[in-house]
Amino acid sequence: MITNQASFKRDGVQDYVSLRATALIITAFALYMLWFFVSTPTVTYEIWRDLFSGLGTKVFTLAALVSVMIHVRIGLWQVLTDYVKAPGLRASLQFILNLMAFVYVAAGLFVLWGV
């Protein structure tokens, strides 16, 4: 059987790996932020601005935002497929929730990079 590698269809293995990879990135970012708050006695605006002025933190934050979007997209698809049986309602909910996840990442871009 020949499959088209350029198609947008996913399979279970790809979803599984994507969910685990994005979960690792989100966990690493959460631990990074936890380390920052634990190791910084007083968090002021200047300290917070200095943290996010570095390129490494900006890229890591962007990776975490995109990971959240991918994680949400796959997770919502799985949950909505299991619990919402009406195809029209499911498609509408998926569209709205995926759009919200995209807007979340876009807002993060504006905040991070000052676009």
Please describe the structure with a list of short key phrases separated by commas or semicolons.
elongated, mainly alpha, 4 helices, 115 residues
Q: What is the β-strand count? A: 0
- Oligomer category: single chain
Q: What is the N-to-C order of secondary-structure elements (H for helix, E for strand)?
A: HHHH
Structural class: mainly alpha
Q: In percent, how much strand structure appears in the residues?
A: under 5%
- How does the major sheet shape up? none
Unreliable stretches (pLDDT < 50, length at least 5) are: none
Return the average pLDDT rounded to an integer: 90
Radius of gyration: 18 Å
End-to-end distance: 46 Å
Tertiary shape: elongated
In DSSP terms, counting alpha (H) and pi (I) runs of 4 or more, how many helices?
4
Please give the share of residues in helix. over 70%
Summarize it.
This protein has 115 residues and is mostly helical. It has helices at 12-39, 45-53, 55-83, 87-113.
Report on the structure:
The chain has helices at residues 12-39, 45-53, 55-83, 87-113. It is elongated and about 50 Å long. It is an all-alpha fold. Helix 1 (12-39) packs across helix 3 and helix 3 runs antiparallel to helix 4 (87-113).
